Amino acid sequence: MDARRELLHLRSAGVSFVLDVAPDVPLILHWGAALPDDESVLVALRDSAAPAVLDNAPNAPRVFSVWPSEYEAWAGTPALEGHVAGAATTPRPVLRDVEHEARADGGRIRLVLDDRLSGLRCTADYDLDPAGVLSAVLAVERDHSAGPEPYTVSALTALLPLPSAAVETLDFTGLWAGERRPQRSPLLDGLHLRRTRRGKPGQDSPYVMMCGERGFGARRGEVWSAHAAWSGDQRLLVERLPEGAGVARSVLGGGESLAPGEVRLAAGERYSTPPVLFAWSDEGTDGIARRFHDRLRRRERHPRSPRPLTLNSWEAVYFDHDLERLLALVDAGAGVGVERFVLDDGWFRGRRNARAGLGDWIVDEQVWSHGLEPLVQRVRAHGMQFGLWVEPEMISLDSDLARAHPDWVLGPAVGLGPPARNQYVLDLGRPEAHALVLARLDDLVSRHRIDFLKWDHNRDLLEAVSREDAGRPAVHRQTLAVYALLDELRRRHPGLEIESCASGGGRVDLGILDRADRVWASDSNDPVERIPIVRWTQQLLPLELIGAHIGDARAHTSGRVTDFSFRAAVALFGHAGIEMDLTRADPSTLRDLTAWAALYRELRPLLHSGEVVNGDPEETDPGTWLFGVVDPSGGDGVFLWARTASSGAGQSGRVRFPGLDPARSYAVRVRDEFGGALRNQAEDPAWVTRASMAPPVFPGAMLTTAGLPLPTLAVQQAMVLHFEAI
Ligand code: DGJ
Predict the structure, then answer these.
(1) How far is the CA of 364 from the centre of ligand 1 (A)?
(2) Per-residue pLDDT at 589 exceeds 80
(3) pLDDT (tens digit, 9 = 90+) per residue, 383-421?
(4) What are the E-state strand segments in 246-333?
(5) Among the options 523, 526, 592, 631, which is catalytic?
(6) CB atoms within 10 A of CB 97
(7) How many CA atoms within 13 Å lie on the side-chain side of 427?
(8) How far is 179 from 534, CA to CA, in rounded Å?
(9) Are 698 and 666 in contact (CB under 8 A)?
């Protein structure tokens, strides 16, 4: 082989991925900043890849391959863990075939390896997309000639090496109404493994695991990151061994988290990991977010129509469904400019509370004596879209479905464990259960010309074993069954939009987002809690995919009471909506809501296409937040400046606005037509006072490098700053 055929290079958007496919198991030579498209550089990379041979260590230099194993003396997490009846635990794959297709903006590599020891054909697929995101999918297929004993896959993990510069990690945890809380730690020797066992990523999902240079921040530092595009159980890990990983220092990767015996491959059967998406940037966490957003926005089915202002019935009426009341709510919504009405939980048989009805996706005739049509028609008469809440993966024991098919509930034959939110999980891996739910949903969508389904998922899949499948673990097949259900519904109804809800924020991943058009990021509409949730949810998702609603003055989750203007400013940053009983709102609130809705319509083209930028928290007071969206081609920018807690600093000092174009000038306006923010000060900075008469114009170079002094907001206040490029 000549070097060109041995050294494979994918390049895109400032990222390079380099493999050496000459050895029996190809080596990963580089993932990170782009290298020149120059063969001599790749040769030099290969020729310098052998580290010191250490004392008391293997006699050959260490390597790090696409399929790390004990054979390579890799003592960390291997690519493949599994066995055939307790044997064949030490894989020995050997390269058999290589496909390489390089494009100017990325390309793909497929490596096929044969492992005679375990009777598996192993495949590693890498795809570098135009956004610079590298997708890795590993797969194993049991030989047709293998014996009758199946191969049990315990774990299959896509791993990439990290350089010594990666010394800190940042990933996420959280809980209901407090999702995506960042947690940061030094990268130490050992395994930092985030493994979910909830049958969904969960409120504490690791989400995006990032490793970076010391002190990497929103806009600075090299960062390497991984996300598992999978809606079942998953694992993300970073691991460092004293001896390193080949010539690299540590490794980053992930895959699916499998239960014991969950995947057993008979002859001819195949298992593949979900896509593990790797993004690198030298522009901090915002640089990582930009790559994921770019990837998402290039999808054919990415939502591109204006994201309709939504009114959701949940916090307005909860289970208290009454046609007249809901018609009045729809009318009030139309009055303030609502464009989509969503009827939340409570519309189907027996669903007067959270204890019954799941599984019976038939309209409750006792509450809806004329069905849903009178409501749907009123919604349509106002020119709005109609949406409906469903929770298709769940079942209440108090339902006709559970009474007819008790064995369709996931759980051990010895008896079900405790319910969660009074409910259980429907075994969608059973073809007859899948067909029934599909038929009911299909009928609802067709009958009512439904535009939008809010797809909830309110419990963890604990003891999720299938009685149909001899009590074997069922999360993997359940996840695939849900994907198939969503895919088929969307195939039958191409215009249908779907929201991934899961108690608010419990299933936010790029597997479900291949089949959903937005997420309900949290059940918390409390702006103090929402600000960090939105700030970090947009680490992966652009704002057009993140539902953000204004709730009542007293947040239903936290009990905190906040001003309308604060709630409204925060809810602008997302796919906006309302979660209030508008029939009880006073005229001034309705006026403010109308002004806010108009501002949302004005700003959404920018909010839903621009680049997300975050102020560096180190630069501002700990009680304040600054984030925004800018048009990267030198157009407008819009920022949220908020104070969630009181603090020591009397004034903001100059605050820099990242992402604006230093070559342009901007007219700066405070957009407070929906109500102004309270201040803790005698007077605004002079430019803000002037702005109320005529927007002052400032050079972008000044705004990005020096910044502007901002009002000292009272606690729990926010303002929206609009930078219009002139
Ligand atoms: C949980 C969701 O997050 C809420 O928004 C609401 O839809 C309820 N479920 C309804 O049961």
Answers:
(1) 19
(2) yes
(3) 999 999 999 999 999 999 999 999 999 999 999 999 999
(4) 248-256, 263-265, 270-272, 276-281, 310-312
(5) 523
(6) 11
(7) 25
(8) 9
(9) yes
Identify whether the C-beta of residue 568 lies closer than 8 Å to the C-beta of residue 592: yes
Sequence-distant (≥ 6) Cβ neighbours of residue 252 within 8 angstroms: 159, 160, 162, 166, 209, 211, 224, 225, 226, 237, 238, 278
CB-ligand 1 contact for 520 (6 Å cutoff): yes
For 310-607, CATH number? 3.20.20.70
CB atoms within 10 A of CB 583: 16
CA 99 → CA 110, 149, 518, distances in Å? 5, 31, 35
Q: Could you read off the pLDDT of 662-713 as tens digits, one per residue?
A: 999 999 999 999 999 999 999 999 999 998 899 999 999 999 999 999 999 9
One-letter amino acid identity for 160? L
Q: How far is CA 673 from CA 133, 152, 565, 608, 692, in A?
A: 40, 62, 9, 21, 11
Task: Please name the helix (run of DSSP H) or strand (run of DSSP E) that holds residue 245, with its range, or none.
Answer: strand 234-245
Is beta strand 424-425 parallel, antiparallel or unpaired with respect to 472-473?
unpaired
Are the C-beta atoms of 546 and 574 separated by less than 8 Å?
yes
- The DSSP output letter for 232 is S
Query: What b/e readout covers 280-316, taking b as 16+ CB neighbours within 10 angstroms?
Result: bbebbbbbbbbbbbbbbbeeeeebeeebbbbbbbbbb
Task: Write the residue with the smallest CA distance to atom 10 of ligand 1.
Answer: 345
- CATH 2.70.98.60 in the chain is located at 3-297
The CA dihedral of 525, 527, 530, 534, to the nearest 10 degrees, is: 120
User: What is the pLDDT of the chain when averaged over all its residues?
Assistant: 97
Whether 583 has a pLDDT exceeding 70, the answer reads: yes
Specify whether the CB–CB gap between 232 and 200 falls below 8 A.
yes
pLDDT of 621 reads 84
By most ligand atoms within 8 Å of CB, the mutation choice from 315, 345, 519, 556 for ligand 1 is: 345
Residue type, 347: W
Give the mean pLDDT of 2-12.
87
Helix (H) / strand (E) element for 11: namely: strand 7-12
Closest ligand 1 atom to residue 523 Cα is: 3
Q: How far apart are CA 647 and CA 201, in angstroms?
A: 35
For residue 351, the CA-to-ligand 1 centroid distance in Å is 13
- Would you place residue 2 in the very low, low, confident or very high pLDDT band (cuts 50, 70, 90)? low
Pick the CATH number of 612-725 from 3.90.1030.10, 2.60.40.1180, 2.40.160.20, 3.40.50.10750: 2.60.40.1180
143-168: b (≥16 Cβ within 10 Å) or e: beebeebbbbbebbbbbbbbbeebbb
Residue 511 near residue 230, CB atoms below 8 Å = yes
The CATH 3.20.20.70 portion of the chain extends over 310-607
DSSP secondary structure of 321-377: --HHHHHHHHHHHHHHT--EEEE-S--BTT-SSTTB-TT--SB-TTT-TT-SHHHHH
Pocket test for ligand 1, best of 203, 523, 549, 579 (most atoms within 8 A of CB): 523
Domain with CATH 2.60.40.1180 in the chain: 612-725
- CA–CA gap between residue 228 and residue 393 (Å, rounded): 21
CATH architecture of 3-297: Distorted Sandwich (2.70)
Rounded CA separation 119/140 (Å): 10
Q: Which residue has the tokens 């949730």?
A: 533
Residues 6+ apart with CB under 8 A from 648: 621
Alpha-carbon radius of gyration of the chain: 27
